[in-house]
Every structure is written in structure tokens, then in C-alpha cells.
Amino acid sequence: MLTIFRWLLRLTVAMILLLVAGAVLIWYFAIRSLPDYDASYEMAGLSAPVEIIRSTEDVPHIFGQSDEDVFFALGVAHAQDRLFQMTVLRRAAQGRLSEIYGASGFELDDLARRLGLYEHAAASVGAQDPETLAALEAYSAGINEWIRQVNEGAMGKGAPEFFLFPDQITYWQPADSLAILKLLAASTSRAIGDEVLRARLSLAWPEHGPELQSPGDPVRQPYASLLPGARLGIPQSHRTGSHPMDLRGFLHPGMGLSANGFAAASSRTAANGSLLANDPQAPLTVPSLFYLARLELISGGVIGATIPGIPAIWSGRNQHLAWGLTPAAMDDADIYIEEIKPGASDSYRGISGWTQFRTESAVIRILDGQSQTITLRETENGPLVPRIDPGLQDVTPYGHVASLRWTGLSQQDRTMSALIGLMRSGSRAAAAEAMAQTVAPALTVTLADPEGVHQFTAGAVPQRAADHPTGGKMPAPGWLREARWTGIAQAAELEPGVSSEAEMVIATDEPQDGQRRKRLTYLLGDREVHSRDSFIATQLDVVSPAARALLPLVGANLWFSGEPASAGTPERQRQDALNLLAEWDGEMSEHLPEPLIYAAWMRELQKRLIQDELGPLADDITQLHPAFIDAVFRNRNGAARWCNIIQSAPDEDCTTIARQALDRAILDLTDRFGPQVASWRWGDLHQAQHDHPGLGRISGLGWVMNLTQSVSGGEFTLARSGLLGGGENPYEAVSGAAYRGVYDLADPDSSVFIISTGQSGHPFSRHYDDLAELWRRGEYIGMSLDPELARAAAVGVTELIPAE
């Protein structure tokens, strides 16, 4: 017995030693990939020495003697801090995520291959102007030289993720940067999802379903009348109720990225200098989609937010100009339903009769699985895209397939040239001329210089015939001539934009009557004179205009009704909740109970309004539609019909439905947090979940790689945080302002910047999440174009020396 005990003890000690040794080895190899910011590197491709000066927050300030050398160094800096993110974004655009993630990446790869993102990007390389092509080539060379340094110096493969994901890092090419820009453009558009959902609603309730999305703006005709074979049958829910796997590539087509942008001319500012604010919003990943950088170009210094893989400042300023980019609320894509020829699956019905598909094959390699060969087919309208939206199968009749036409499917896309030209522009006029080259994504461009502010839309705009059967609001029969685009125009040619003499300009990704736009208009108009601090306060505003509009309407017949109920009863809880909401100003503060009560009430109310009419399809309506609820409770065009539950004998009114929804919401919150209504907090459920797209889902690593923070705000606040909408916590914030910037041209060096995580993508770096708490608290960092200030505050200086 003693011998057995000794052997067990020896085995236990050996196992512990092996585990410790393994942990030390993992730590050692992972730590090797941390870049040394105080080092010198000899690199081929440079014409002269370059300095990369790192600030306290790890922001690179790059100084070189030519623009090409500066872009080269930006490639080095991006690769030092975000190499895994860059390669994953490239893989997402190429349709090659399955090679590192396995079968879970197949659907994303399938969609990227069918869209041909990389092929269209590669074809667009030759369309760039010479300056942009030189920048792309220099940037690629910088990335490749860093990869070479990593390989020759055995620097941990460049990022710790590469120890867990088998990845042969191929050298970077200009087409890779254009492909990531294509992926960003595809991720910006909402048109496809809106079309499919509107068609599903039309099939579920032909007379009134689409008014859920667009009250007062009915579609031209029911979807079933366009395609008589379309039958929804029993509506199917496609909601997963958990974090979408599409974040494995950081971005995914159809996400619907958003932003706010606003500016004030010097006549409306306290310091007599123009102001501009911009906050591009994206999925909350770690690292953030954005990366701060400063470049010293021949035309002058430029500073702001970049996207790793793209050598351009997306939002920022130079010595003379500030700019912000907001996705334009534009219908830039159409789904077409194509009829397959009976008995001949290689042909479809075109305008002139039966036409053969253009066909080719592609192979998707899958880690630890069998490679899959897919057939790519294309029609006159565009590529077939069966997996572009999970609800598309519900609206595609038997014997038909779906194709896509999208402005981003261009092989002469000069959007990268537009962005590079914007950085170098010294005036609003020059910037407008540069951005006129934009194709996709369509953008609202906000500009400010010492003389004033200007705003316009840039990008390709589909032209549809007046007799288009759906007006682009729903999928259309692909064989109808009137459903085809009549052309593609440039937005700048169609609208002059806001006058250059305007004192104030506003941009959101919403229509003119959108909730955030209304709030932004009010805040900017409420002050005669603005300052940098008032712009910051506006950018961080967490008052919900939707809550302010809906609560008095929905609760009109519930406020203070009846005698006070006994403590501890559901009736008393309802009264306590209504009393709190009656005094609430709509501030979605993480420290208050009112936002939680409001959000739970409106979620349950909308569900009750639509569940009986739409059935399981209602489960996919995860976003609140305030305009719909407003129309129902005002009985606009008879919309109060939604309050009556069809399956029940009595006729329910809206007051009854509102009370039932509130009681159900309170019951759910009581199960979570106990019966004391005043003790509930919005931040207990409304938490920003910054997920690492690769390692964050691996058991045991999520707690190291992911970040979770309680935050204020909501879906309709200016400081926007999109909700998950399903699962155990539908109030989880899964998107938000991945970058915020406020630029003060009266005192340019007082401009402020922040990203949602940290500059580094390396979990062992102190810059992995050092900006996250500042971002959560609504704080910023300063970044100056003064070279002496950059050097005085340097925590590291990297020297790049031309190799002999």
C-alpha cells in the first residue's frame, strides 16, 4: 500500500511539474510575440530611416522622409500590434476562415466566395490612382518585412493566436487591403436583410405585416402577388439567441454598421473655430475594429482612426481639415428571385428567355474536415446567394433561386483612392473632389475646416425605374425588365449636399425622422454656441428619445390608477414601476432601474402585439420598432388592430395589452433580481461584451481574452449600444462606438480620441485593454500633431533602417 501511495505521489508531482512546464513554455512563446518598441530593424523597401514614436497609450507617431516610407511604417505598426486581426479580416474577405476555424466558418466562407469580394477587390487594384497604388504597395511591403522579422527572429509567430490556429501567414498584397474594404462595405449595408424581412412579413400577414417596419409607408403590392408560388407556410424562426458566429471574422456582410457625425462652423462655437465629432459603430470585439495612428506625410500630419489592413485614416484630421464618415441610409442592393428552367438546372429565366448560368467551382478547405467544392453561379442580375440571409429560404418559391445586385460588386472601385485622397486634402473642396470617387460603402461625409463645415453623400446609387414592382423594398422577379436597375449614379451628382455656408450639419444612418437624428438635432439646436466639451456631452448622450415618446403613450391609461396595493403584491410592483417611470427623464443610465423596466416592458409589448399575427416569425423581430408601437397606440390608419389577439374570443384593447406586457416584464425581472423594483439596475443586464473572435469561444480562454463591462445607453441613444435581442440576456450590448473622436479646429491639439479596447491585440500586452475603462466612462485621450510633444511623451521609439 505504501509503495502504491509513493507512486501516486510521484505521478501527481510529475503531472504538476509537467503542467507548470507547459504553462511556462506557453507563456514564453506567447511573450516572444510582444514587439519591442525600443528597437531598431533593418528592412528592405525603405528609401530612408523612419521613426515610429509610441505614446503612453501605444499610439504610433510615424515620421519619414517620403509618403511611401510612412505608409511602409504604418504597415509595420499594424502588423506589430494587430497581425492576427489583419489576417482574419483578410481570410473573411477571401472566404478562407474554415482553414483555421473548421466547419463553423463554412457558411461565412461560402457567402464570401459567392459575393466574390476578393476577386472584385483584386480587379480594382488597377483602377486606383498612382499615389494610392504606391501607398498600397509600400504598406504591403511594411507588413511583409515585419513578417520576415518575426520569422527570422523567432518572435513567437507574430501573435499568440497562431500557436492555436494553424496559419501559414502569406505575404500581404495591395488586393488584400482592398478586399478588407469590400468586406467593410458589405458589412455596412442593411438593404438585404430589410428586403427579406419585409417579404416574410408580407407573406405572414399580407395586408398589414410590412407596416411593422415602415408604418405609413406601405409596400406597392403583397409579395405573394409578385411570385404566386411564394408560400411562407408555417413561419420559421431563424434567431439563434446567442452571439453570432459571424464575428469570427470581425465583420460579416449585412451587419448594418452605423455612426453619428456632426459639425458646427466657427460662428456657432465659443472659440471661433469649427468643431466636428464622429463615432463609427461596430461589433464590440477585442481588439477593437479601429486602431489609432498619426502619419507625417509630405502634405502634413494626419491623425485619427485606422482599420488594420487599410492604410487610411477613416476618421480624423490633418493640419487644415477634419472629417468624419457615416454610413449613408441608402438602399444599395436588391435581391432578385430567379426561376430555374424545369428539367434544366443550368438555365434560368431571363428578360429574353431561358439563359444559362455563368458557372465555376471553388474549393473551401476545412480544418480537420473534408474539403467542400461549391458551385458558383451568376445571372444577369448578379451572383446566386442562397445563404446571404437566414430568412431568404422562406421567401424563395420552389424551383427558384435568389441572386444579388449590389453596388459593391464593382471591378472599378476607387473607394480606396477616395480615402487616401481625403487624408491629403487641405480644404473642404479638395476633400469633396477626392470623395467623389467613392463606390461602396456609400457614406455621408462630414467636413470641417477653419472657414466652415460641409456635408454630402458619396458613393454609388442604384437607379430604379418608376414602375419597379417593389421599389427595391422587397425581392423582385429577376426576369422583369422593370425590376432591373436603369443605371448606377454617383451620389454627388444627384444631390448637392448641405451648403458650405451651413452653420451646423448632422449625419446619422437613419431616415430624417429617426429617433437619434431627432435627439441630435435637438441637442445641437438647444445651444447657441458650442464647445469641444458640449460636443463630447452630445456624443455621450444616453437619453432615449424613444422612451420619452413611447412611455406617455403606452402608459396613458395606467398611470396612478386605483388605490395603493398591498406591499409585496404584483399590483404593488406594477404601481412602483409606473411611479418610477412617471418621474424618469429617459436617461438610460446603467445605475438606474427605470431603463431596465422600460426596455423589458417595450420588448414584451412588441412581442405581444405581433406574436399571434406572425407566429414563430415574431422571434426574429429582435429590434424594437418605436414607430410601429407609436402607430398602434395612436391607431394610425387603424393600426390598433395589432392589439387584438386573433385567437382569443374577446376583443383586447391596447391598454389591456400594455398592462399584461408590463406585468410579464416585471415577473421576469423579479425572477432575476428579486421583488424590490427600486433595487434593479440597467447595468446588471446591459453589459458590453467585447469578444475575441477566435480565442474568446475556447473554453477556459474566454475569461482571459474577452472583456465585459456594464454600460449606459441603448439602441436609440446617441451613445448607441445595440442589443443582442435574444437568449438568456437579450439586453446585452453587442455593438457600440468602437471609436469616438471630437476635433476642435480652434485648438487642434485639444482634439480627443478613444477606441473601445486597446491598441494591441496581444493579451499579454498592457495595451490590450488599457483604453477600455476610459471608453466605458466616456473619457478620451489627446493626440497631437506637434512632433516635439510626441517625442517628449514617448515610451518607445522604433527605428526602421533601410537594409543594404
TrEMBL record:
UniProt keywords, alphabetically: Calcium, Hydrolase, Membrane, Metal-binding, Transmembrane, Transmembrane helix, Zymogen
Transmembrane domains' residue ranges: 7-30
Any one of the GO BP annotations: antibiotic biosynthetic process
Annotated Pfam families: Penicil_amidase
InterPro entries in the cross-refs: Ntn_hydrolases_N (IPR029055), Pen/GL7ACA/AHL_acylase (IPR014395), Penicillin_amidase_A-knob (IPR043147), Penicillin_amidase_dom1 (IPR023343), Penicillin_amidase_N_B-knob (IPR043146), S45 (IPR002692)
Domain of life according to the entry: Bacteria
Binding site residues for Ca(2+): E195, D331, D334
Molecular function terms from GO: hydrolase activity, acting on carbon-nitrogen (but not peptide) bonds, in linear amides; metal ion binding
UniProt entry tagged with the keyword Membrane: yes
Required cofactor(s): Ca(2+)
Entry annotated with the keyword Transferase: no
Cofactor, free-text remark: Binds 1 Ca(2+) ion per dimer.
Family named by the database record: Belongs to the peptidase S45 family.
Protein name from the UniProt record: Penicillin acylase family protein
Organism: Paracoccus methylarcula
Taxonomic classification: Bacteria, Pseudomonadati, Pseudomonadota, Alphaproteobacteria, Rhodobacterales
